[in-house]
Write a structure and sequence with these properties.
This protein is an alpha/beta fold. It folds into two domains: 2-171 and 223-250, Rossmann fold, CATH 3.40.50.720; 189-220 and 253-330, UDP-galactose 4-epimerase, domain 1. It contains eleven helices and 14 strands. It has helices at residues 11-22, 54-63, 78-83, 85-106, 139-158, 189-197, 225-240, 258-269, 293-299, 308-319, 322-330, and strands at residues 2-6, 26-31, 46-48, 68-71, 110-116, 161-167, 169-171, 204-207, 219-220, 222-224, 246-250, 256-257, 275-278, 287-288.
């Protein structure tokens, strides 16, 4: 078995690579390094390329005996997707189509797709299970849904079997502290709060404190990135065992409010987190919590790093350690 991890130098992709290597799986990374970081995959066979350039994809398949693909190489900023929808369709949809076409021509039939809870849109029921209606409210979620539908047809017509993993709020870092979340433009709550603890930003803005929740702030389901990676490995084994294409939602099945995340960061870091209250953002649901029973029942998946303080402790170890060296190296 040789697994091609597309987007393997990015945040979730690099943790997936680490999990595959821990399980002695032959692994190859394909990444443009537009968003990813070569430091995150030191010692791993690497092929630089862009999914939007079919010749790049054809070369990596010609040069290596690939038996399965894991796909993490998507643009994922909701706001940006609404400002520049064309680049999201080009990268997320057209790039994936190139990948699937080359897989088909190369006889590769196992595909693990990093999807998102953004395909659901406004929640109708909580928790959100796999049968929840899919009505994306942004271009990012729409492009992921287009790919999900594309995968159904590639299975029916070409026999490329896939598992689509829709996850909620990926968070944390590998407990070693040597890889973690590192974005040029940061939009995720936990790293933003930790930047306040580090003195890299003055405060954290809470967008709305009058929601119908226990403390008035939005509630989200945070799942540790290593637990996500474990689910991807189980999904690959599920396909290798001859099972049909399917979809799983991934989350801890419980939520934490923005205020609770800030308080936990204060406990973990021992530092004061200055908070500024702002207005609600358009399109922010009050509560988003995953229903992940199917993944537990079918894959035997069980989150291990589900405690909020533990998630933040791993992120803090990364942000207060190796991440600082990365920033100095990149001149940030």
């Amino acid at each position: 078995m040789s697994v091609l991890v597309v987007g393997g130098a990015g945040y979730i992709g690099s943790h997936m690579v680490r999990t595959l290597k821990r399980n002695n799986v032959d692994t190859l990374v394909f990444d443009s390094l537009e968003k990813g970081h070569i430091e995150a995959i030191a010692g791993i066979p690497f092929h630089k390329g862009d999914l939007r350039h079919r010749e790049d994809v054809e070369k990596v398949f010609a040069d290596h005996n690939i038996t399965a693909v894991m796909h993490f190489s998507a643009y994922s900023l909701v706001g940006e997707s609404m400002d520049r929808p064309e680049i999201y369709y080009e990268n997320n949809v057209y790039g994936t189509l190139n990948l699937l076409n080359v897989m088909q021509a190369s006889g590769v039939r196992h595909f693990i797709f990093s999807s998102t809870a953004a395909t659901f849109g406004e929640p109708v029921t909580i928790p959100i299970d796999e049968n929840h209606p899919q009505n994306p409210t942004n271009v990012y979620g729409e492009t992921k849904l287009v790919v999900e539908r594309m995968l159904d047809w590639f299975d029916r017509i070409y026999g490329i079997r896939s598992v689509r993993l829709r996850y909620f709020n990926a968070a944390g870092a590998d407990p070693s502290g040597d890889i973690g979340e590192f974005h040029e433009t940061e939009t995720h709550l936990i790293p933003l709060v930790l930047q306040v603890a580090l003195g890299e930003r003055e405060n954290i803005t809470v967008y709305g404190n009058d929601y119908d929740t226990r403390d008035g702030t939005c509630i989200r389901d945070y799942i540790h990135v290593n637990d996500l990676s474990d689910a991807h490995l189980l999904a690959l084994r599920y396909l290798q065992d001859g099972n049909p294409s399917t979809v799983f939602n991934l989350g801890n099945g419980s939520g934490h409010s923005v205020r609770e995340v800030i308080d936990a960061a204060g406990r973990v870091t021992g530092r004061k987190i200055r908070v500024v209250n702002g207005r609600r953002r358009a399109g922010d649901p009050a509560v988003l919590i995953a229903g992940s029973q199917k993944a537990q029942d079918v894959l035997g998946w069980q989150p291990k790093l589900y405690d909020l303080d533990t998630i933040i402790e791993t992120a803090w170890k990364w942000h207060n350690g190796t991440a600082q060296a990365w920033k100095r190296k990149k001149g940030g």
